[in-house]
């Protein structure tokens, strides 16, 4: 988990463009780079893995990056980049949307679709690389959040940005167990930030519906171990009708019961990672699953591996 540093300082000017393109391909994925002046280009990049997330800091002169169809056709892994500009604005184009992200904001980039990313002034970027299957376990249809600017100064976006910066700036993670926990919390904050569109657009086009949906989500998160948790109890606690509650969750392409089950599986997975003294059956019952067989079946369908396989891999 040590930092790996890359720099153009010792690369002869005629070789810098090719060498830097190779560094970018190795740390992120293959991209076509366009330099303002290839021979005068200077860049520094440091990166390391934290759990299943890769964190990097990229400092370069003006540059344009393009993810082209030829790059995508040969890739086998799907990944997202989360970019937080720290010095100057960036322009990003993907899926027929172009946005300009100022320092203090952040954007989500889909690595398995073409895009163009550029900045006209020297920049300092904090970049997280997140496997698509990992983000997909927390967030349904993450693609819909690409090419949008999110507020990194306040709300959940502010918490996420602050934690991402500290993760890079404060080198305090020294063991795999801590890295797994920290990376999970960072993804959870990212999920909340992506779903919190109150600064520009709401998930249902209504601030009231968004507030109700968030209240319902908070209630579910606080009562995951309650065996009586149901659409009826949630609706009563939030002061809405059960029909309205179901309508709220249809706004985010899901159902209440599905959300409860998904959140219980995510919480159970977290307990599997940190509570080695608890059996799989005990964890399954704690989060309301009828038996270990049902829990294992649903867990594998959601995460692609059984609870025992997940615990063994973490160990």
Automatic annotation (TrEMBL):
PROSITE patterns: HTH_ARAC_FAMILY_1, HTH_ARAC_FAMILY_2. It holds the Pfam family AraC_binding_2. Residues 214-313 form the HTH araC/xylS-type domain. It comes from the Bacteria. Keywords: DNA-binding, Transcription, Transcription regulation. This is Helix-turn-helix domain-containing protein. It comes from Pseudohoeflea coraliihabitans.
């Amino acid at each position: 988990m040590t930092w790996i540093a890359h720099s153009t300082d010792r690369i002869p000017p005629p070789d810098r463009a090719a060498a830097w393109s190779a560094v970018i391909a190795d740390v992120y994925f293959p991209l076509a780079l366009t330099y303002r002046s290839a021979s005068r280009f200077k860049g520094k990049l440091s990166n390391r893995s934290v759990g299943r997330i890769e964190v990097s800091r990229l400092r370069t002169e003006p540059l344009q990056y393009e993810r082209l169809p030829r790059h995508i056709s040969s890739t086998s892994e799907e990944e997202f980049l989360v970019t937080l500009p720290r010095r100057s604005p960036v322009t990003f184009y993907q899926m027929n949307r172009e946005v300009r992200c100022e320092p203090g904001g952040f954007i989500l980039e889909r690595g398995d679709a073409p895009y163009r990313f550029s900045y006209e002034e020297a920049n300092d970027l904090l970049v997280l690389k997140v496997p698509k299957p990992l983000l997909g376990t927390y967030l349904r249809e993450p693609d819909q959040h690409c090419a949008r600017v999110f507020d990194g100064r306040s709300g959940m976006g502010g918490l996420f940005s602050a934690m991402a910066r500290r993760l890079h700036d404060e080198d305090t993670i020294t063991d795999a167990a801590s890295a797994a926990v920290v990376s999970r919390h960072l993804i959870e904050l990212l999920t909340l930030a992506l779903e919190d569109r109150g600064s520009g657009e709401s998930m249902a086009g209504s601030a009231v519906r968004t507030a109700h949906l968030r209240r319902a989500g908070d209630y579910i998160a606080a009562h995951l171990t309650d065996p009586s948790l149901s659409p009826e109890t949630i609706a009563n606690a939030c002061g809405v009708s059960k029909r309205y509650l179901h309508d709220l969750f249809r706004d985010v392409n899901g159902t209440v019961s599905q959300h409860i089950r998904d959140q219980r599986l995510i919480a159970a997975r977290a307990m599997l990672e940190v509570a080695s003294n608890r059996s799989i059956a005990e964890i399954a019952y704690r989060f309301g699953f009828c038996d270990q067989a049902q829990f294992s079946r649903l867990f594998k369908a959601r995460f692609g591996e059984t609870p025992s396989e997940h615990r063994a891999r973490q160990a």
